[in-house]
Write a structure and sequence with these properties.
Strand content: 15-25%
Order of helices and strands: HHHHEEEEHE
Protein name: Transcriptional repressor
Keywords: DNA-binding, Repressor, Transcription, Transcription regulation, Zinc
Number of domains: 2
Number of strands: 5
Family: Belongs to the Fur family.
Structural class: alpha+beta
Distance between the termini: 36 Å
Strand order of the largest sheet: 4-3-5
CATH class of the largest domain: Mainly Alpha
Low-confidence stretches: none
CATH architecture of the largest domain: Orthogonal Bundle
Shape: globular
Largest sheet: 3 strands, mixed
CATH superfamily of the largest domain: Winged helix-like DNA-binding domain superfamily/Winged helix DNA-binding domain
Bound molecules: zinc ion
CATH topology of the largest domain: Arc Repressor Mutant, subunit A
């Protein structure tokens, strides 16, 4: 299990390895993402503002797009909004429709679905790596609102 600081350091190493610069804004966004699971750009902006960081929303969008391009974060559409998560560990996702909690699923959990999608050789997938991932919707059994009726 890596600490948040180790994950941020690894992400900055990856940015530099790709020829990018580890700007203050990029580091701040990585810190927010390391402390959460998946966040929209607006959520990232709100959390930055709560720490007193003066980084405007358009900069957050730009930083997230850059980090996604470098495959340091992956982009997952959840509930109609794009969310961003650190992509250092390949994973898929479950999402609670009530509280929005995102949990991570190991790649093996959807291996059979990907095998079926590619079985006839007419299609290949790229969901097993850093880009995107499968999203499984449901409801937490521990959600304060209770299970879906
Ligand atoms: Zn993810
Ligand atoms: Zn829930």
């Amino acid at each position: 299990m890596h600490t948040a600081e180790q994950r941020i350091a690894a992400a900055i190493t990856a940015i530099r390895a790709a020829g990018g610069r580890a700007t203050g804004a990029r580091g701040a966004v990585l810190r927010v993402l390391a402390a959460a699971t998946h966040l929209s750009a607006a959520d990232v902006h709100a959390r930055l503002a709560a720490t007193g960081a003066r980084i405007d929303l358009s900069t957050v969008h730009r930083v997230l797009a850059t980090l996604a391009g470098l495959e340091v974060v992956h982009v997952v559409p959840i509930g109609g909004a794009l969310t961003y998560g650190l992509a250092d560990r390949p994973h898929h996702h479950t999402v609670c429709r009530r509280c929005g909690t995102v949990r991570q699923l190991p790649p093996s959990a959807v291996a059979a679905a990907i095998a079926a999608a590619t079985a006839d050789g007419t299609f290949t997938t790229d969901t097993a790596g850093r880009d995107g991932g499968v999203v499984v919707y449901g409801t937490c059994t521990t959600c304060p609102a209770g299970p879906a009726r």
